[in-house]
User: What shape does this take?
Amino acid sequence: MGTSLMQGKHMNRLLKSFVLIMLLGASGCVIGSAQNQFRKQKPVMPVYESDKPYALFIESQRRRNQGDLDEAVLLLKQAVKKDPESVFLKREMVSGLMEQKKTNEALRLLEDILAGSPDDVETLILSGKIRQSLKDFETARSNYEKVLGLDPDQRSIYLLLGGLYLEDGDLERAFSLYTRMVEHFPRSYVGHYYLGRIYFEKGRLEEAEQEYHKTLELEPNLQEPHFDLIRLYEKTGRQDLVIRQYENLLEKDPDNAKSHMVLGVYDHKTGRRQSAEKHFGYLGRKSATDQTVFKTLVSDYLDAKKYSELLVILDGMLKEATERSEIYYLKGIAHERLKELDRAVEYLKKVRPDSMFFANAVLQTAFLYQEQKEFSKAENFLKSMIRKYPEQADFVIFLGSFYEDAGKYEPALNIYRQALVKSPDNVTLHFRLGVVYDRLTDREASIREMKTVIRLDPKHANALNYLGYTYAEMGIELDEAERLIRKALEYKPDDGYIIDSLGWVYYKKGLFKEALGYLEKAAELVSDDPTILEHLGDTYLKLRNEKRALDMYRRSLKQLKTENSVLEQKIRELSEKEF
Assistant: This one.
């Protein structure tokens, strides 16, 4: 198997694995100890009576190992009092305080250590890692730079500092740093690898190629340099070298699905059909036991919009896996993306009921009928699926939503009610039923359904918001409405519609200044919603800012694109005034 250095397409993401490792292991001090995640029942411990700093430290370590972090930190504090000049004890105490999430106290202690020992390398490293974990990147960079000035043998700091430079897009400083690293550590394959990445970004492709080859010379089993070389050769049009790299990968890792895919497609294009069939056949057999095949197909071909190549691979795989529903499903999606809707429906209908993709395939088929304006086909198809698979509530919900979109609320009401007989605790069915009751102006029934949803799922943000907004619209239970909507915001804090609901509650309470802040924020998050814009206009009007109110009303009407007599009247009345 090939060894993976890191994963990811962009340079700044490639350092995360190293950065995480560096942040978690600092000079014998642990910032985030895993041992506290699995605590056993804490034993009763005797009071420790020694007044020797070292003995107090040893006891603190014993307490920490047994899960008693609080007592461990208290013992460290005693040790520091006994020996206030000990930098080591203070660093240990900083680590304990960070584990306790007493960040400010830990930072104050770090500053105290560095004030007395500004060139202590271990403390600078610890400070840098803590500052980096707190996203204080400027201080972290400064600390790491000072560390390397004092001790250029700190190999891990090159990686941490290089990562910060690359996060900032500072290629020049990163290049200088990694150059120093490979001069100091000539056999550092990581340093050569990142030099290659930087050369590539700077367009210096010959130097990049040399660094990638140097990386592989030092660490032959790495995969990433091969992929980077592939990217380089693709950019320079050297297809023969692209293929050679995939062949190298396959030689080192015969199970590398991506290599089989690329080589199979290449062989298919160049007329080497027998070789292509071997690669695709292998993928077909492997897909029966390894889901990574489909994950790779999705990420490298479907998401990358390489639909024709995807279909070539899938067709080849079908020869060895004729009943694989996943293959039919991906073929259907690929044909859909190519706007070949009839072919898409043909393959989606081949997905078997025992497949994890069956429900998606049914819903996608119905959606494609709608896309082709074949509404009766969509309706009849969903009805037939509901009869065959009555336990599939998603089919009912999709058909109900289809009716809702068409303004057919009575049919939607009927199928939701029927489905609830079989699935009385289905949260989504109750929620959709509540929405339909609201559309039919049966507010009492809508409120009842939303309360049922919240009883079944107290964290259902949409139901909490819907019920709260309904109360606000009715002008009743406004304190309860505020409570419900604030609860919804705990689960969706940046949802513009929920923020609008809270602003509307304040409006209904007559607290117009408070309402304004929330409604302006909602309009920033959802700038094209006519209701939010109208709410904002109403609030400006109450605050006597008629010019802004008129602007909001006009924007709201423009977004509606339909007649609205109430909104049009508001605009007429304000248009007649002079501002």
